[in-house]
């Protein structure tokens, strides 16, 4: 028994010690992996890739300022060793295979290896493209194209190159803003034209300046020229990927044979200083940031992961200083070239990433049922991984399981997928219930007409009408109903508020309460496609407080400004017409609310249109009410509106300053109280 007690005590002690140990997420890596959720926000997730190894040299051959990396079909690593003017060929374990181009190359900046083993080298200082055979012998070289379409004064400084199956070369040239240079190997190198040209960014301010300035002034402005692509890659379909610094949402492009960008995603999750790009094995693409961050995207440009980062001097595996190249092998290992450290960082995918790649592959092949298995495993590992939820929803949609597709689309915040699934569900419901719906409508119309006929002949609703009439004569009910009259005839209604005693604190406040209730209900419970807030996020008290403070501040500022400008409106009258002006929202926004639950993306514009018309209506009757209640001219009215807006801004600034000061005072008092308690305790 004593032994059992000692054993139990030891186990309890061990559990307590384990619980007391610090827990660190993703401890196997010196960096954190992030993904993007359906709201476009960056979220931490499981490690996608682990730092596998670092290649500092190949046998005894060290690198000097390497600038590009490429992997051949047989898994060999080709590095443009710019500082040593050569191409180094090695194995993934750091073994040296051969050296190419020594004595021929001057400053190789880009390297590409074809399926048959030919090595294409972009040599900047030589101003040429060199082609070497598998054995390292020089096969051919191409200089500046002779075509006048290239530009006589445009220099030929090749820095990056890829080649398609037809042998056509796509070359990035330094400082050439016309685009990628496309060269055919025929006739000693035929210039086919510029490919995938970037567009110069133009804003309205620049357009106006250039329109009004003189030629001399325009000449002094910064030239608005398109950016030169930073790097490029090619996939097994012949599609070209480019990355360009400073090109905002067009940082990453996926170009078809016509040079048209096939990526339309604009979630702004791109590298700030992209330096390299590589096509993956699963219709995906990788972008390396110069600072060491690695981004992975699907074929639509949606970010899957971002990991890695800059080295802070600790020399930890997986962190880089100056990335200049990236390549992917057949096992999805990532080879990142660090030109500053003259080394190659190697990353291998985790089980989580392997499952995702498998799902991507199966989905791209149309095997939706098979893709569900790896997606299910992914969601067991991380149920909040929105991309997996989105992919699962799309798979279920292809299987015509629309209800489940709808559920997963909502989890992933996939508005397009949700709309498609809801469209199908709605169609099924309409097919099954359209006749019943028509019959109910017809019966309701008949019933209304019958009841009207009976009432006109036998007065069957006489008592109800009398009670309703008596109810509407009550002062409170009459004033609430008067808001509807004000909505239809704001000029006459405002006169009633100003001169006929239609200003009523209780009725106005009642309408404000209804407005607040509709606003809160609409904001948090409207249809998914119309919702503008995150699921599960509720700030109801903040919303109510903002509206109440806003209407009080607006009333106070308007009254003060109107009084200064000899307006006739009192606080009560101004508050009343402001609250009555909310009547269009109270009447019409429930319609938009209902529509938001039954419309898809193709018709959701109807709710937007209702909202625009409603807010426009509110603005118009509020302006008319302000004019009539204060007996202003239209010029005076707009003057007061401007002054009121300015006064409200000053008031908001004053409240903010007071809040900050009181927060500091409260913090000081709290700290002082805590210090006193501490000293008394000791």
Major sheet size, sense and barrel closure? 4 strands, antiparallel
Total number of distinct structural domains: 2
CATH architecture of the largest domain: 6 Propeller
Tell me the strand percentage band.
Answer: 15-25%
In whole angstroms, the N-to-C terminal distance is 45 Å
The coarse silhouette is elongated
What CATH first level of the largest domain would be assigned?
Mainly Beta
Low-confidence stretches: 1-27
Our Rg estimate from Cα atoms comes to 35 Å
| DSSP summary, beta strand count | 27
Strand arrangement, largest sheet? 3-27-26-25
CATH topology description of the largest domain: Neuraminidase
Based on secondary structure, the structural category is alpha+beta
According to CATH, the homologous superfamily of the largest domain is TolB, C-terminal domain
By DSSP (H or I, 4+ residues per run), the number of helices equals 17
User: What's the rounded overall pLDDT mean?
Assistant: 86
How would you describe this structure to a colleague?
The protein is 46% helix and 19% strand. It folds into two domains: 48-348, 6 Propeller (Neuraminidase), CATH 2.120.10; 476-664, no CATH class. The strands form eight sheets. The protein has a four-stranded antiparallel β-sheet with strand order 3-27-26-25. A four-stranded antiparallel β-sheet has the order 6-7-8-9, with no helix packed on it. The protein is elongated, with a radius of gyration of 35 Å. With 682 residues, it is of the alpha+beta class. It has 17 helices and 27 strands. Helix 6 packs antiparallel against helix 7 (402-412). 35% of the residues are buried. Strand 1 (34-36) and strand 2 (42-44) form a beta hairpin. Residues 487-655 form the Yip1 domain. Residues 1-27 form the signal peptide. It is found in: Membrane.
């Amino acid at each position: 028994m004593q032994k059992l007690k000692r054993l139990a005590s030891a186990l309890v002690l061990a559990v307590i010690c384990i619980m007391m140990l610090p827990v660190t997420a993703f401890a196997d890596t010196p960096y954190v992996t992030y993904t993007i959720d359906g709201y476009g926000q960056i979220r931490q997730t499981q490690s996608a890739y682990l730092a596998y190894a670092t290649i500092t040299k190949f046998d005894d051959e060290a690198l000097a300022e390497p600038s590009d990396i490429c992997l051949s079909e047989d898994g060999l690593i080709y590095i443009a060793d710019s500082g040593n003017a050569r191409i180094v060929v090695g194995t993934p374990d750091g073994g040296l295979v051969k050296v190419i181009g020594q004595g021929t190359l001057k400053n190789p900046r880009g390297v590409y290896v074809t399926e048959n083993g030919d090595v294409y080298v972009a040599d900047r200082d030589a101003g040429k493209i060199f082609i070497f055979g598998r054995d390292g012998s020089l096969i051919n070289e191409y200089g500046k194209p002779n075509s006048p379409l290239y530009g006589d004064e445009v220099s030929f400084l090749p820095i990056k190159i890829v080649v398609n199956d037809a042998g056509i070369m796509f070359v990035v040239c330094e400082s050439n803003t016309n685009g990628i240079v496309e060269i055919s190997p025929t006739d000693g190198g035929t210039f086919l034209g510029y490919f995938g040209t970037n567009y110069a960014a133009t804003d309205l301010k620049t357009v106006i300046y250039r329109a009004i300035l003189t030629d001399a002034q325009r000449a002094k402005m910064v030239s608005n020229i398109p950016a030169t692509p930073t790097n490029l890659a090619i996939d097994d379909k012949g599609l070209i990927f480019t990355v360009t610094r400073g090109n905002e949402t067009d940082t990453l492009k996926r170009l078809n044979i016509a040079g048209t960008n096939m990526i339309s995603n604009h979630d702004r999750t791109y590298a700030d200083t992209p330096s390299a790009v590589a096509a993956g094995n699963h219709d995906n693409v990788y972008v390396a940031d110069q600072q060491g961050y690695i981004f992975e995207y699907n074929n639509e440009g949606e970010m899957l992961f971002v990991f890695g980062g800059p080295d802070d001097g600790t020399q930890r595996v997986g962190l880089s200083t100056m990335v200049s190249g990236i390549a992917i092998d057949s096992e999805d290992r990532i080879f990142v070239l660090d030109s500053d450290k003259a080394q190659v960082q190697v990353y291998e995918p985790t089980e989580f990433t392997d499952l995702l790649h498998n799902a991507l592959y199966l989905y791209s092949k149309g095997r939706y049922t098979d893709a569900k298995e790896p997606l299910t495993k992914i969601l067991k590992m991380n149920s909040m991984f929105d991309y997996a939820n989105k992919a699962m929803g799309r798979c279920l949609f292809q299987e015509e399981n629309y209800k489940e597709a709808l559920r997963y689309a909502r989890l992933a915040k996939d508005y397009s997928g949700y709309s498609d699934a809801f469209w199908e569900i709605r169609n099924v419901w309409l097919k099954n219930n359209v006749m019943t719906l028509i019959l109910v409508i017809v019966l309701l119309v008949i019933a209304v007409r019958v009841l009207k006929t009976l009432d006109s002949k036998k007065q069957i609703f006489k008592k109800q009408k009398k009670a309703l009439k008596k109810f509407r004569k009550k002062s409170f009910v009459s004033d609430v109903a008067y808001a509807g009259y004000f909505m239809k005839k704001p000029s006459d209604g405002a006169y009633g508020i100003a001169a006929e005693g239609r200003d009523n604190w209780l009725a106005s406040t009642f309408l404000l309460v209804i407005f607040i209730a509709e606003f809160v209900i609409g904001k948090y419970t409207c249809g998914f496609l119309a919702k503008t807030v995150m699921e599960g996020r509720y700030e109801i008290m903040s919303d109510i407080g903002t509206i109440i403070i806003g209407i009080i501040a607006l009333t106070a500022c308007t009254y003060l400004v109107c009084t200064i400008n000899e307006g006739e409106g009192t606080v009560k009258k101004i508050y009343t017409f402001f609250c009555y002006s909310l009547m269009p929202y109270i009447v019409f926004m429930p319609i938009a609310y209902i529509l938001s639950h039954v419309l898809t993306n193709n018709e959701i514009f109807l709710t937007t249109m209702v909202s625009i018309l409603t807010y426009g209506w509110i603005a118009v009757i509020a302006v008319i009410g302000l004019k009539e209640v204060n007996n202003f001219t239209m010029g005076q009215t707009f003057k007061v509106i401007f002054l009121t807006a300015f006064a409200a801004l000053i008031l908001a600034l004053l409240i903010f300053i007071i809040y900050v000061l009181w927060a500091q005072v409260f913090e000081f008092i709290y700290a002082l109280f805590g210090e006193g308690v501490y000293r008394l305790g000791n």
